[in-house]
Each structure stands twice: as C-alpha cells, then as structure tokens.
Amino acid sequence: MNLELEHHYPKQVHIFNDKCLNTQLAYLCHPQTRQPLVNELVKFLYGSLINSVLAREFPTQKVRQPTRMTDKHPKQLLETEIMDQNQRVVVVNLARAGTLPSQICYDVLNYTLNPEMVRQDHITAARQVDESHRVTGTTFSGSKIGGDVDKAVVLFPDPMGATGGTIAAALNYYKNNIKGKAKKYIGLHLIVTPEYLANVTNDHSDFVVYAARLDRGMSSPEVLKDIPGKNWTKEKGLDDTDYIVPGGGGFGELLNNSYV
Question: Are 202 and 172 in contact (CB under 8 A)?
C-alpha cells in the first residue's frame, strides 16, 4: 500500500496518504475539538511523523548485543539494524505553534538516539501582517541556539505550512548565521499548502518536506480534479488572510488557548 500521495511537486516533498494520520488530523481540525484533546492528538500525530522521518532520512548501524535470554543461550546474540547512535540532531522550536511538536520530537529522539547527540533550539517567530491581515513577512524577537549544526540533521516541526515565510526565514538564519554545514534540513508539518511548497522549495532546494496532509481548498474544481502539482501555479490553499483552507484554524491559538 502506497502511504504517500502521488504528486508533481519536487521529489523532496513527501505528503503522506495514511488513513490513520488522516483520521487523527481530521479529528484535530474539527470545530468542536478543544483542549485537552488538541494536545493529545498533536502528540499522536507528531509521534508518527518523527518515527517516519527517522526511518526514511536517518542513517542506521548494525549491532550485535545480548538480550535477557543471553544467560541461557550465550551464543545466540541479537543481530539487528538500529538508528546510528552517532548522528547529530537539532530540533528547532518555532514558538508558539511549534513548541509542543518540537518537544515531542525531541523526546522521541532522546529515546531513539544517543541523547548527547540531540539538541533543541528555540526561536520566537511571529507573522508580520498588513492592514488587510495578509502576511507580509516574519519577525524574530528572540532565540536560544545551543551551538553549531555541522553534520547535523536539523528538524523544523511546524504544524501549519501556510505561506512558508517563517520556515524560509528560519532556514536563512541557520544557513547564514550558525556555524557548520548541516547534513539535512527537514520540515515536519501536519498541513501544507501549494503556496508553502512553492515558496520553500524555490528558496531552499535542499529543504526536505514531510506533511500529513495537503490542503488546496481555494483552488477551482477543475484544478482539484488534477493530480496535486500538475497545475501548481493555479493551485491555492490560502484565503485572503493567509489561513489554510480547509485547514484547522490557527494551531498556535488552539495549542495555547490564546486567541491573539
């Protein structure tokens, strides 16, 4: 069974076609879903996303080690393939919508890899909007970055890939201001739009995108009949205030119960 959506976007874009993820995400986006269910559903969803990204994007190593049965059968050691324990990882918390997703990914990574190789950075970012509430840019009001990114996989767990402005600004910041050359930059999203995919892949062709769902509900019925990405320039997932349709509303507001 193919768990990825067929599309004509760049090859580094991965959109899942997973019925379990779709079910949990549909529940999360329902207008009657509120706290504490919001946080619990985000935990389920990001637990699945980070495991999928680990399996697909991270190096592995072969090990031979004892188990609890080794005392009885000393010659029969476990031989298996696990995640490479020497791989560096940086998880970037893009506050505020990305705070819980980042913590979830950070916790899973600490249980899966060598915790000494795992770091969490923090950036406070906000949309800049004009008088019509359209997004005009991104403002960084603070950050706490714990070192270089040399040979690290840098993860951006950000639920809503709407315009791409925040992710593009964060990528620019890491590439231009933080020492070292990262092995990969990867975004982990619940929902992305065609506009987001265009902006981030045009500006950063090395950026790998994973998403649970693609929303392009502002496109015409004719465009929606085509395979995603076939008529990319005619696809639209954002309304006049740059919110995703059908989307799930503002996840930053939902996650924090703070509607400002």
Answer: no
Q: What is d(CA 133, CA 199) in angstroms, rounded to the nearest whole number?
A: 19
> DSSP readout, 68-125?
TTTTT-TT--EEEEEE-TT--EEEEEEETTTHHHHHHHHHHHHHHS-GGGEEEEEEEE
- The answer to whether residue 5 sits within a structural domain is no
Residue 30: band (very low, low, confident or very high) from pLDDT cuts 50, 70, 90: very high
**Containing domain of residue 203, as a range?**
13-256
* Contact by Cβ (8 Å): 57, 119: no
Span 110-154, pLDDT tens digits: 999 999 999 999 998 665 556 665 655 566 657 899 999 999 999
pLDDT in tens, 48-65: 999 999 999 999 999 999
